[in-house]
Prior knowledge:
homodimer, alpha+beta, four-stranded mixed beta sheet, 31% helix
Amino acid sequence: MVKAIFYHAGCPVCVDAEQMIFTSLDKSKFDLEVVHLGTAQERIAEAESFGVKSVPALVVGEKAYHINFGASLDDVKAGS
Amino acid sequence: MVKAIFYHAGCPVCVDAEQMIFTSLDKSKFDLEVVHLGTAQERIAEAESFGVKSVPALVVGEKAYHINFGASLDDVKAGS
């Protein structure tokens, strides 16, 4: 199983992208973890280490894919 | 089967995203079509009608998801 992490911050763009990812990802291949960076602020540094700049973002095999634009990580850090 | 269309323009960001989508999409649920807008310029208007602004982008159920940023549709129209 390949690890996939979906980072979001609860914004409407995030929720919509999460639904798409959750529906479309091949669950026989991927172990999907969903991380809300607004509540799990301690994982922001981890997200940044994969190259995540904004949410929603999907990290697959340590590569970051930004899906549309909900909020920058700076906004998430500031709690806005 | 839900129709999914991946629009790209052959750029490195596009190729990387295409590989991720091709690997991760649940093929039992989705009928995936890949469209190169650089060579199929007649389909740019169709992409725009789904809300696609840049490539690479995935349209699922008529909703557009921009995945990272390779090129704007204006650049694709200009052939750059």
